[in-house]
Amino acid sequence: MAAATFYIPSVNMIGSGCLEEAAKTMQEQGLRHALIVTDRVLNDIGVVAQVQQLLAAQDIQSCVYDGTHPNPTTSNVEQGLALLREHQCDCVISLGGGSPHDCAKGIALVATNGGDIKDYEGVDRSAKPQLPMVAINTTAGTASEMTRFCIITDEVRHIKMAIVDKHVTPILSVNDPHLMAGMPKGLTAATGMDALTHAIEAYVSSAANPITDACALKAVTMIMASLRDAVNDGKNMQAREDMAYAQFLAGMAFNNASLGYVHAMAHQLGGFYNLPHGVCNAVLLPHVQEFNASVAAGRLKDVAVAMGLEVSNLNDSQGAAACIAAIRKLAQDVGIPAGLRDLQVKEEDFDTLAANALKDACGFTNPIQASHEQIVAIFKAAM
Questions:
Q1: Is 185-382 in CATH node 1.20.1090.10?
Q2: 349 — phi, psi (to 5°)?
Q3: Domain 11-180: which CATH class?
């Protein structure tokens, strides 16, 4: 086993009511002028005002950038950066799901390192830590509040840039399930399937280690037990809290073992057609694992055990098939579209999508490396 390095924010708060605690912690850290990076919906429904109130009570001033797109763009980063400089902010707070977190990471990184966010595509390209960043999470899925991954869409090239950098790790992550109670069904389902994808891809990754394995398998168990309940009844606070823990565990797994072709391919669909990331992952997940089963059947059988399936009398390839069937069933139960055709994906784009997917850093740790033709074949199977 190769040597492993484990990345995670230095402080992480999870559980009902931890948001207030987070504002106190920021005050103790000497942070006084925050740029809040969020989206219009969270601003319109008053969540932003609620956070600003908690900050004001701790004598922390704040201004708001709420222009983040669902797939945050290079120009979102530039707009947020202009606001940050205008108000001379000393920290960045992201409020929302993966989109505001990623946008905020881009802003905080360029604020201290200079240049353009495109300069940091790839692994550990920055020289200095970003501006202190606090990530307040409102979805149970992406784990972007605690990872060193930042995904920004380059509008010119129509691709999602993967920025994997220890310097984009927030200093504090906050998962208060009360902020997640208002999440609509579709978003709960998509972000929950994103978390399942993180756990499974990390577990079969070529960079997996005993720490990431433990996190990944526990995440799978909790998601299988809670996601349907969280989707069916958004006010079920036990299911919401369990999903908050599960997605965080999955984040710990993939932040350190990385991912695979599900993400490498989903990033292309998201960048090309502006589709929701979690839905793309959910549709691709069983098809990529069918491809991986030729080398990772034993690992996929372990996932089946974590899912609560009775597979002790099956061989590895049968166990892997049971795991893949359970992924499909869960996706169906929570209302994920059946295939890429339902998302208006076009077969004539597969060549371009496959070529870009093979360049995505997430694919480098897939347990088996694919040819261009094999990636195209997976896209076709997922139609």
A1: yes
A2: -90, -5
A3: alpha beta
Neighbours of 228 (CB within 10 A): 16
Backbone angles phi, psi at 42, to 5 degrees: -65, -30
**Integer Cα distance of 266 and 27 in angstroms:** 39
Burial classification of residue 88, based on how many CB atoms lie within 10 Å of its CB (0-12 exposed, 13-18 middle, 19 or more buried): exposed
46: exposed, middle or buried (Cβ count in 10 Å: 0-12, 13-18, 19+): exposed
pLDDT in tens, 124-147: 999 999 999 999 999 999 999 999
Which pair of tokens denotes residue 94?
């992201």
* Domain boundaries along the sequence of the chain: 11-180, 185-382
Paired tokens of 254 = 């993939």
Note whether 122 and 164 are within 8 A (CB): yes
Q: Strand 33-37 and strand 91-96: pairing?
A: parallel
In the block, which residue shows the tokens 């391919």?
A: 265
Q: Could you read off the pLDDT of 199-228 as tens digits, one per residue?
A: 999 999 999 999 999 999 999 999 999 999
Q: Residue 279 is encoded by which pair of tokens?
A: 């839905």
Asked whether the beta carbons of 6 and 210 are under 8 A apart, the reply is no
Q: What is the pLDDT of residues 72-102, one digit of tens each?
A: 999 999 999 999 999 999 999 999 999 999 9
